[in-house]
Write a structure and sequence with these properties.
223 residues, two-stranded antiparallel sheet, 9-stranded mixed β-sheet, alpha+beta, Aminopeptidase
């Protein structure tokens, strides 16, 4: 397999990447095809595909915020079983993030990720791709060391329609930091930056941010 940087909407692999997104995720989680043009050309947004004989068999998107010293995994899709796609993507992503942090002159604190809670939502089939089953994905993240941040989480719909998307948890994977909490201020700053691209945010999201601004620390819990 090759770890291929998808950095333009006209890249030959992007059509396959977007088809995987539409297959795996519900519509409110998928940015429209043409709206990917600007993000793909942003050097801070890293979209890489695992390609085997010209076929996209997996893809991951992530970014590193040097001023916050945190990363965010936007999504990871395993498109085919039995190829070790998940490990391949995770190892190459980790190496790339290490290089990005070194270039920025700092040590990363960890990585955020959003994860569906299948115990609250049972109707996400994820395109019938077994490795993407929400129960499997949740346990994999737990084994990797991710922990759930202790607050009710919602995020703005990527359809930019002012709706809130719920039944997810915001999680964090500490890289080297000791302790069982994360500063609430860091979470607020990260979420505000991350979702600044979406101007139409639901009242529930605004209320969530206001609540976080009143807290000092957020517990990191198992899930």
């Amino acid at each position: 397999m090759d770890y291929v940087h998808i950095n333009h909407i006209d890249h030959p692999g992007f059509a396959q990447v977007h088809k995987l997104l539409e297959t795996v995720f519900p519509p409110e989680e998928v940015l429209a095809y043409e709206l990917w043009r600007e993000p793909l050309e942003d050097p801070g947004i890293r979209v890489f595909a695992a390609m085997l004989d010209g076929e996209v068999v997996g893809v991951t998107e992530y970014r590193y915020y040097a001023d916050f010293r945190v990363a965010m995994t936007d999504f990871t899709i395993i498109g085919r079983e039995g190829l070790g796609v998940g490990r391949f993507l995770a190892e190459h992503r980790a190496a790339d993030l290490k290089e990005l942090a070194a270039q920025a002159g700092g040590e990363p604190l960890g990585m955020f990720a959003e994860i569906y809670d299948p115990y609250r939502v049972s109707d996400h089939s994820f395109g019938g791709i077994k490795p993407m089953d929400p129960f499997v994905r949740r346990e994999v993240l737990s084994h990797l060391g991710y922990r759930r941040l202790d607050f009710p989480y919602v995020h703005p719909s990527w359809q930019n329609d002012g709706e809130a998307v719920s039944a997810l948890d915001l999680c964090f994977l500490p890289f080297a930091r000791e302790g069982d909490t994360l500063p609430a201020e860091l979470v607020v700053r990260f979420l505000t930056r991350y979702y600044s691209v979406l101007p139409n945010k639901a009242g529930a999201w605004q209320d969530m941010i206001a609540g976080l601004e009143q807290r000092r620390e957020l517990a990191l819990l198992p899930f």
